[in-house]
Amino acid sequence: MKAYLGIDVGSVSINIVVLNEAGEVITGLYLRTKGRPIEVIQEGLKQTAESIPPDVKIAGVGSTGSGRYLAGIMVGADVIKNEITAHAVAASMVIPDVQTVFEIGGQDSKIIIMRHGIVTDFAMNTVCAAGTGSFLDQQASRLNIPISQFGELALKSTSQVRIAGRCTVFAESDMIHKQQMGHQIPDIINGLCEALVRNYLNNVGKGKEILPPIAFQGGVAANVGIKAAFEKALGFPIIIPKYFNVMGAIGAAQIACEEVSRKGETSFKGFQITNLPYRTGSFECDGCSNVCEVVEIFEGEKVIGRWGSRCSKWDITGENK
Amino acid sequence: MQKLTFPRMGESWRTFKMLLEDLGNEVVVPPRPSKRTLDLGVRYSPEFACFPLKILTGTYLEAIEMGADTIVTSGGIGPCRAGEYAMLHHKILADLGHNIKMVVFEPPRFYPFNFIKNVYILNRARHSIRGIIALIKKAWRKLQALDNAEKLSHVIRPRELITGTTTRVYRKGLEWIDQAYTNEQIIDAETAALEALRNVPQNPEAEVLRVGIVGEIYVLLEPASNLEIEETLGNLGVEVERSMFLTGWTRDNTWTETTEGMTVKAAAEPYLPELVGGHGRDSIGNTILCAKRGFDGMIQLAPFTCIPEIVARTILPKVSRDYDIPVLTFFLDEQTGKAGMTTRLEAFVDLMRRKKHFRQGNGLLTG
């Protein structure tokens, strides 16, 4: 049986999925990046190789996320795609007539506007990471509430508390202020969810025509409080796909499937790469006044990838034009 | 003898260097903006001033280290605050203990005496009026040659067979034009540079997208301030047409307005009938003109906190809807990272490619 591998290397999590030819998920993994993408990718691939049936043959690989070049070089990806396209493709696999995709991950948030199955507009958060997963994580641990229960608590709220959501620093001090005034924790958390949604819609979603069906994906979609706040603010139902936290990887696998059908065969190096030694190194280029920091990735002693310079002098990214 | 320097904008320094030297001055060529330029600029500029002010503060400080004592720059009369930057820079530099002379050119159309007085200050070699006019004409020709080579490089790059060839050939061509000192030499060097670019091995079947670039002049013209967006797009298979070149801008602001400028104004009229300063109106007008010419998308470049471009940014979604052309905006400052920009550009290119395929009735999911 043929299958397609998708790897999404994000700031907070690394997701690996295997899709069958019909686009159904055979196995999906959600692992924390823990600042060590190479090790976690290897670990994830090891687990994936163990969990798929032995007759499954990987016929194509796609990588996405901020670490897409790293992952792509390591595994021999057939396609290295940006997160926006990957998420859009995955959303339209689940909801064919989707018109809006909200994606909130660890460090960034995006909105993707689609019409008739194609992306017509998109935006990502620009100057500020307020309202992304990392901030919610941090607040949950400050309040000593497991992040998995954070959203449910918000639903128990009985009265309105308005939290300043413009910036995480202001939001946090405002939350502490409200807590010292004697407000209930569920009300504060609900206020935070509404503030983050307001911030998202006013910043990332500014000037965009948000029409249903709306898909909400990324790690933060697990938070029912945020989902409820979106529904309240927009007046539309929000659809959370079953595999909401690995949608980027699903999109990458699907794109790989299309790419391989075009070029004939995969360049996947095989699961044995989980046993190869990888290391990275860096140096400063002294070619011009930019003094770029160039990063190299080695497989054994061989340089397989290099990037980071502003000109393309040193680049080996494995991506074709 | 006075040692002159001036703002660096792309490759135009080659022309200014030649002209100021021809007039009998010693010239300190401003260095290409680097991390150090930015560090200096950010340290000594007001935090909420726009990116061009900060880069120029850094550039001036570096040029002063190299011996410059006089800065030749432009003023401005519109609502954009850049018109005040010469005075502000003068004060910042004075606070840092640098006694620098500023020669500020206001638009000659409105301030002819300022122009004559400044030319007099710069004319150390005591050329006749006729001599000066000939030198300016020659410099103008060089500027055109530089612009023409750059324009052609934007057309060739997305079609090149081997990534990087166009940039290499273009750099060589720039050197040829740089070394040319007479009108004949400039024309020869230009011809040779354009010929060399045309000879870059190309893929005739490359599926090339066309994107227009609009926005604030400094971040458009100085690649170091926009993270070399044009080169990046070229490498993604996109032909870039920048709405603004120094030759175009100078024409608009000297003796008469070009017909091009008039059309841009007329195009923007229904959306923005006012001059909002800077190039806000041009960004809207040019977006409409490019949409009418069948471009696949537009990119707006703006310095963070730039009011004219913020005004344009809020109007562009409507233009984008009315003319069915995708628009992507980048606000640039010293915090801008190339990774984030690359992700957005790649996604934008996918968007345009799929839209094009969709229009052509090709049901592919990805480009």
Description:
Chain A: This is Activator of (R)-2-hydroxyglutaryl-CoA dehydratase. Chain A: GO terms for molecular function: iron-sulfur cluster binding; metal ion binding. Chain A: Its cofactor is [4Fe-4S] cluster. Chain A: Keywords: Iron, Iron-sulfur, Metal-binding. The complex is a heterodimer of chains A (321) and B (367). With 321 residues, chain A is of the alpha/beta class. Chain A has 3 domains: 117 residues, ATPase, nucleotide binding domain (Nucleotidyltransferase, domain 5); 145 residues, Nucleotidyltransferase, domain 5; 45 residues, no CATH class. Chain A is 36% helix and 25% strand. Chain A has 9 helices and 13 strands. In chain A, the strands form 3 sheets. A 5-stranded mixed beta sheet of chain A has the order 3-2-1-4-5. In chain A, strands 8-7-6-9-10 form a 5-stranded mixed beta sheet. In chain A, strands 11-12-13 form a 3-stranded antiparallel beta sheet, covered by helices on one side. The two termini of chain A are 31 Å apart. Chain B has 3 domains: 125 residues, Rossmann fold; 69 residues; 160 residues, Rossmann fold, CATH 3.40.50. Chain B has a 4-stranded parallel beta sheet with strand order 2-1-3-4, sandwiched between helices. Chain B has a 4-stranded parallel beta sheet with strand order 6-5-7-8, sandwiched between helices. In chain B, β1, α1 and β2 form a beta-alpha-beta unit. The longest helix of chain B has 28 residues. Chain B is globular and about 65 Å long. At the A-B interface, α3, β8 and α9 of A face α2, α14 and α15 of B.
Q: Identify the CATH class of the largest domain in chain B.
A: Alpha Beta
Q: Which class do the helix and strand fractions of chain B yield?
A: alpha/beta
Helix content of chain A: 25-40%
Task: Tell me how many strands of chain B there are.
Answer: 8
Counting helices, strands and paired strands, the structural category of chain A is: alpha/beta
Major beta sheet of chain B, specifics?
4 strands, parallel
Outline the low-pLDDT stretches of chain A: none
* Mean pLDDT figure of chain A: 88
What's the CATH architecture name of the largest domain in chain B? 3-Layer(aba) Sandwich
Strand order of the largest sheet of chain B: 2-1-3-4
Q: Which strand order spans the largest sheet of chain A, edge to edge or round the barrel?
A: 3-2-1-4-5
**How much beta of chain A, percentage-wise?**
15-25%
CATH superfamily of the largest domain in chain A: ATPase, nucleotide binding domain
The name of the CATH topology of the largest domain in chain B is Rossmann fold
Inertia-based shape of chain B: globular
Strand count, sense and barrel status of the largest sheet of chain A are: 5 strands, mixed
Oligomer: heterodimer
Question: What's the domain count of chain A?
Answer: 3
Summarize the helix and strand pattern of chain B as letters.
EHEHHEHEHHHHEHHEHHHEHEH
